[in-house]
Amino acid sequence: MSQLEFFTEFDQLTTRLNSFAYNLTKNSEDAKDLYQETAFRAVTNRDKFNPGTNLKAWLFTIMKNIFINNYRKKMKANTIMDNTENLYYLNSGRTQVENGAESDILIKELTVLINGLDDSTRIPFLMHYQGFKYQEIADHLELPLGTVKSRIFFARKDLKLQIAGRYGKLRETA
């Protein structure tokens, strides 16, 4: 594969690579960095690509491996190593344990609000909350995809209105 062919095919896959990078990172800036690192490694290792094989799969594999390696580095960086005698810092008692009673009450109230929704919006909303993809919900309920999306949207909107009605405008914590 010539250099021109390689860059032409790579250029055609740019949109898909950027989408995949965003899917992995869930952050636009991190996705741009991941794409750039993938492009750099693909260009520098172009001679290792076997012509006649799937360039898209090769590039996606490079991107996925870079993401995994970066993730592992971040996780290692967050590990606390305590080399003091008797693990003084880890056992110093500075950690706070939260009491979940308040959050349990909020969850129970939210459950009451959700159960109060009409079945047409509650069922798709709960399925989405449980991790089903929009298409899976549409197939299961035998509804068009757009209908499922709009019902989930309306369920969220209705819940927000009910919460605002009960508690007024809540301050968002970040």
Automatic annotation (TrEMBL):
Highest taxon of the lineage: Bacteria
Keyword ATP-binding: no
Record domain RNA polymerase sigma-70 region: where: 14-75
UniProt key word Transcription: yes
SUPFAM superfamilies: Sigma2 domain of RNA polymerase sigma factors, Sigma3 and sigma4 domains of RNA polymerase sigma factors
Domain RNA polymerase sigma factor 70 region 4 type: 109-159
Keywords annotated in UniProt: Sigma factor, Transcription, Transcription regulation
Gene3D superfamilies assigned to the protein according to its UniProt record, in alphabetical order: 1.10.1740.10, Winged helix-like DNA-binding domain superfamily/Winged helix DNA-binding domain
Protein family: Belongs to the sigma-70 factor family. ECF subfamily.
PANTHER family for this protein: RNA POLYMERASE ECF-TYPE SIGMA FACTO (PTHR43133), RNA POLYMERASE SIGMA FACTOR RFAY-RELATED (PTHR43133:SF25)
Name this protein carries in UniProt: RNA polymerase sigma-70 factor (ECF subfamily)
Species of origin: Neolewinella antarctica
